[in-house]
Amino acid sequence: MLTPATVTDDRPALGRLRIAARSVLLLWAVASVVATGWVLSHHPFVNPLVQRSAAEARVALSTAVARQVSLDWLVPRLQAAVAEDDMRRVTLLSDLASDHSIVLPAGLQRQVTEAMAAHESWRATISDCRLCISDVARCPSLSLVAACTLPFELSPAGDAAALARQGGNLITGAEIDEVEAALAGIGLAATISTVLTAGSSLTVKGAATVLRVARRADALSPGLRRALREAARGPAPAATLGAMAVDIRHLAARTSNAEVLSLLRHADNPRDLRALTRLSDAAGTDTGRTLEVLGKARSLRLLSRISDLALVAMGLVALVLGQLAVMAGAVVKLWLRSLLRQREMALIRRP
């Protein structure tokens, strides 16, 4: 049984415990503020994003694609692709369904099979290929452009034909396509100088040809067409196109020539083209599928993550703000208690 003396004896110990607890809380608050100041002194929010490694980006991209692709997502897009006779998207979307074990409705699956069969017959392929060679702008797919048009255009005969076409326009008084003439001239000059440069000029030749063919096939965004026109008319077109050539060759190595033609549509400028090469490092041959499912903006965002220092800074700032909120709440509580005490005293004193 506790006696009054025992209670009296415990009071100093309780007081010391309160002082110790308050000291610990004060030290914790001071340490949090100091740590936050030290981290913020390193400017963590100047460059809060860092590039993921290829392996990290690959996991992030595949996870995002798996979450997005579903039967409800696939069906309307596949129906639209079949209706537009866009065989590249039909093949891509049907492959996505297969990869993610999604069973398509029987009617839609029949339409996909029939559309593929109509374009895969040898007679249809020969007819389409002949059309692509004669007029790349009327080619039914970029895959056929790569298979039928690019091999010829990559040869010196392709550049010579382009120069002859623009020379004919000059003679007849028709409008001259300066960009095509410049690209063909660069390609032909690169072919001639291949022996002198030990083959290094083939990179410029290949890029100039891919860009020339993509432009005729309407496979370039307006921004990239504008950048290409400025480069071709600039003081050093070969040097400017050489930088783009590295990215195009990089994309082709990670995907394919046919895929590059479709990927170019996503590049609004040379900076976007460089970003797409980083995406291809992570996605590889699935680069086109990733862009189809996630879109360019989301795909490129997943290549970066918030830096560890920025995460630590956000956590410390949140901790300090939380402590300030608690302190503000305690001050308000004491103030309200003081007001209530004053009111009670006033009521007691009232006669």
Task: Return Rg in Å.
Answer: 34 Å
Q: Residue ranges: pLDDT <50 for 5 or more in a row?
A: none
Annotation, overall tally of beta strands: 2
- Mean pLDDT equals 78
Strand order of the largest sheet: 1-2
Count of discrete alpha- or pi-helical segments spanning 4 or more residues:
16
Span of the ends, CA to CA: 44 Å
Which word captures the global form?
Answer: elongated
Structural class, by secondary structure, is mainly alpha
- Summed up, the domain count is 2
Major beta sheet summary? 2 strands, antiparallel
Helix content: over 70%
What fraction of residues sit in β-strands?
Answer: under 5%
SSE series: HEHHHHHHHHHHHHHHEH
Secondary structure layout plus pairing:
Blueprint: H1 4-40, E1 49-51, H2 54-68, H3 71-83, H4 87-99, H5 106-120, H6 122-134, H7 142-153, H8 156-172, H9 178-192, H10 202-216, H11 222-233, H12 237-254, H13 257-263, H14 270-283, H15 287-301, E2 304-306, H16 308-349
Antiparallel strand pairs: 1-2
Keywords: Membrane, Transmembrane, Transmembrane helix
Transmembrane segments: 19-40, 309-336
